[in-house]
Amino acid sequence: MRCGRKRKGEIGLTLITCPNLHAYARVIGVNLTRHTGGVKGKYIHATRTISTRRNMSIQQYKSTLAHELGHAYYQDEPAINGHFHARQERKADEFAANLLLDHDDVQSAMVWNNNHLGATAIELEVTVHILKTWLNMERKNSKHELPRMG
Ligand SMILES: [Zn+2]
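Above are the sequence and the zinc ion SMILES. Below is the predicted complex in structure-token form.
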């Protein structure tokens, strides 16, 4: 699922770029459009369209677009049930974190920025929320890989 990556910066990160995300949207048949004001992003399943708010930072834009691509990938329709809605949101966040981040980049950016989440998120061009989602997923996964005792 990973798109092409582009090297960036002195610590050799290979960040996914906006053109990569736009190409991915085309591959899964999603139209991209913009709106002014209001929510950061929305996915309309009937027309397979993602709309993102104008004038966001690169961190917000990439994170929002990747999150909405998650809804498109899972073909989510608005959920009325609160529990189901929360689950859709978590899955879209995890999709975004997987799409935008990889283990080596997160590791080197965390070391470079002394484990400061805000600075690391800027370095990685994602929101702190997406970075935290990534770190939680990794923590859960590494727990499963721990050797069994006895
Ligand atoms: Zn969402």
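The pocket of zinc ion is lined by residues 67, 71, 89, 92 (CB under 6 Å).
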